[in-house]
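notes to self, project folder thing:

trying the whole complex as one job this time. last attempt i did each chain seperately and stitching them together was a nightmare. two parts in total, labels are on each line so i dont mix them up again. if this works i'll redo the older ones the same way
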Amino acid sequence: MSLLEIKNLKAGVEGKQILNGINLVLQPGEVHAIMGPNGSGKSTLAAVLSGRPGYEVLGGEVRFLDKDLLEMEPEERAREGVFLAFQYPVEIPGVNSTYFLKAALNELRKHRGEEPLDAVDFLALVKDKMKVLDLDQSLLSRPVNEGFSGGEKKRNEIFQMAVLEPRLAILDETDSGLDIDALKIVATGVNRLKNSANAQLVITHYQRLLNYIVPDFVHVLYRGRIVKSGGKELALELESRGYDWIAEHAEVQSNLAPA
Amino acid sequence: MQWFKDRDPKAAPHEPSWLKNLRQTGINRFNESGIPEPSHEEWRYTSLAPLREWPCRLTDSMRMITAADLDALLFVAGFDSDRLVFFNGRFLPDLSRQTALSEGLILLPLTEALKRNLPTLEANLGRHADGKDSALISLNTALFTDGALLVIPRGLRLTRPIQLLYLSDATEPGASIQTRNLIVAGANSEAVVIEQYAAFSDCPVFTNTVSELVVEEGAILDHARIQNENASSCHVGFVQARQAARSLFRSHSLSVGARLARHNIHTCLDGEGAESLLNGLYLAQDNQLVDHHTAIDHARPHCNSHEFYHGILTGAGKGVFNGKIFVRPGAQKTNARQTNRNLLLSADATVDTKPQLEIFADDVKCTHGATVGHLDDEPLFYLRSRGIGLETARRMLVHAFANEVIHRVPVPQLVEAWDQFLLSSWNPPPSGNAGLP
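result (full assembly):
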């Protein structure tokens, strides 16, 4: 059974269609990278998979562990094992980070028929994971993301991922706004979480991140479609030739394709 | 209302003549103006019309209140402190606690204090809350049955809060309760006082209360007022504080009950270097109306005031906020800040918010701001994307909104009780933001 199957997915937002038929299969243990120029549909894909309100599915289907993903509410998807690392994590003043993450973890555990963790066990669980992501213990007592620097916010996303241990992690331009050091820490965190049962969908604009989170497959998104797929070398080729090369390639493709 | 007009205030026993005169003035003033109408600017958004139909006699409840009854009340349990308990406006000595009172501390029901004719009563009662401008203050002065006298001697710092509990019960609708408090915080003293209003029955009761607070030089007084009447009652409360130089007065108003609640919270900064914090949270759902009229009078220079009021309205609930700030001529270097934020959780909830600044000095800093909005979509989605259900996520965000106010109350048991209340007991807000403008 594949982990994620996207079949001819069409979707849009605010009356505009952005995804024009995405086809993608993720098997457990795989890392897939999605690259593409601005406006190609990268954010829309992340939004539709995570269930962000405001996005309309216009056709196609998505199966996650052989269940209909698009039928599920965002919280159901999370409990089933989908995790979105936000491109712009929001600050939530007044909601304590520990309270929030413990509540989230316990929802997951409840869904899986496990006992909830108490405060002591929760703290023991998270302490080491915080160290890996170079996050200070004091952040746990602050409101969610409040006063966090850009790098801290991104590391906090991966920290949450480490605690919630999803089956499918969608990293939405996790590298945006990060310097090389922060990037390395984030990549280390992500790589440590990779195992043979889960999969990662790494959405990125730049190739640089893929030096550290090495993909098994690279797909290029252009105008709402995957126009080219390949191995990790494709990312390097894209970097040297630029997105215009893809544009030309895609034009040729659409001219050849049946109407 | 006829019952009020027919009452003879001079008929009360054990009362000194100065009070009898005050009461007579009160009833005269009330008879002249009657219950305020919406044509009166101060009552524009809050109609007391239903009150006109109420018989407003004393309640006839024969209920015997026990300690277990008190412990079952939402924001009362868990306190180990001195307290005065009043039931339907009458003092209950058996449930009150006046243990180990420190040297000079006076904590007495007014009826007892009046029997002893303590001088502080004549010096202060009716001198701060002025019936000239308010028919309901006059009515209270004329008819209050009992209440608390608390005098904190100079320099004393209380280590535990003092509770004043006002409980009601009625079998016939339309009963009325009028109680009065006088709190005098001596120079450089520190105290926390909690006034709470709660009901045992669902019968509508009209409660009209006045608290006068004198905060002397350098004193710090925290006054928390919790209104948790039943959903059919009418509650009108006045708090009038007068502050001397370098005093700090922190008012906390937490209002969740009553069908109609009107809170008037006034303070006069009457000495240089005095400071006020007016901190408030109001919740209204279904057909509740909760109205806060505050007034901060900067009568002297170099005083600071901060006002933070948060409202959470759901169902067809209605909120009213009117925040007055007066800066008198000569009150230079005044620093006044007022913020009123409102969260509307349904399409039918409404709020009227109005700042009113009258500034007559020129070297001052006065800022005010009001917001009216809904729960933010992005934090809601963020929480759900981590597996937190929609209802729970909404509660967490509503709780976060209220937190800022609640966490300023310096009583951990109260903060904890409010946290619990907002996270579990308070009626859940309706699902989704659908249909909201």
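what i see at first glance: Chain A has one domain: 4-256.
need to look closer tmrw
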